[in-house]
Amino acid sequence: MPIDPEVAIGAEIGEVSFAWTSSDVLLYHLALGAGPDELRYTYEQDLVVLPTFATVAANLRVFDPPALSFPGVEIDLAKVLHGKQEIRLHKPIPVEGKAVARSRIADVYDKGKAAVVVQEVAVTSSAGDPLWTARSSIFARGEGGFGGSRGPSETLSWPSGAPDAVLEVPTLPQQALLYRLCGDRNPLHADPAFARAAGFERPILHGLCTYGIVARVLVNEFLDGDPARVASFAAKFAGVVFPGETLRIRVWRAGDGRLLVTTSAIERDDAPVLADTVLVSTS
């Protein structure tokens, strides 16, 4: 059986020590499309770190395609899509540092035709101080039906009025090729034949790249360009982006330090890309 929830849930995946430098941060920001008008992200003088750097920091030196082989979980990489990503920041991410990431499988859900595997990663500095906690859900097509729990039904209360802002942000044709240099070498994002075998007309952009682009735009437009004001950032991956498409980002101010956001692809009739996106700020 590809998934055994009794073995998987709560399993410790391992501990990884890693380090990063300002050059890694600069590369990440460039891979998100930051440019010369955003020197706080693209120039080492007065450099700041976007909170979504947390999604790549531990894998910057990983050059093999990811494998999905954990205790109680064996999944074909071609069947996998990112379902949800959440980051909680315990302090601003430093420009350079050393840290330890401890990972576990927090839960496994049976959605019938698919399975959802929830992974939690707690990251501390080399001195033992908490830096961030990340939770990610992967959606594995065709891997459901193993008799597990369907999981909680999450409903986000959404404003009924028009958004407070609508922003249009282009992606680059080479965006996925840049972003894969940050560690995710899944051929789905580069190899046309692999993408077709997985059911896509051409390679798709990493969901975490879209996630990072949206975070960058929100920090710029609503937090005065100060990523230290981000307490948490979460999103559900509702659809794919093809490199070169333009993102339409709709933003509602919730009035309690939260920004509620949806993102769609303009060229495909506003096809949903990110849903239930929430940025919580500290002030």
Automatic annotation (TrEMBL):
PANTHER family with a match to the protein in the record: ENOYL-COA HYDRATASE CHSH3 (PTHR13078:SF59), PEROXISOMAL MULTIFUNCTIONAL ENZYME TYPE 2-RELATED (PTHR13078)
GO MF, one example: enoyl-CoA hydratase activity
Family assignment from sequence similarity: Belongs to the enoyl-CoA hydratase/isomerase family.
Single biological process term from Gene Ontology: fatty acid beta-oxidation
Domain MaoC-like: 161-256
UniProt xrefs under InterPro entries: HotDog_dom_sf, MaoC-like_dom, MFE-2_N
Ranges of residues in domain Peroxisomal multifunctional enzyme type 2-like N-terminal: 18-142
Protein name, entry field: 3-alpha,7-alpha, 12-alpha-trihydroxy-5-beta-cholest-24-enoyl-CoA hydratase
Domain of life assignment: Bacteria
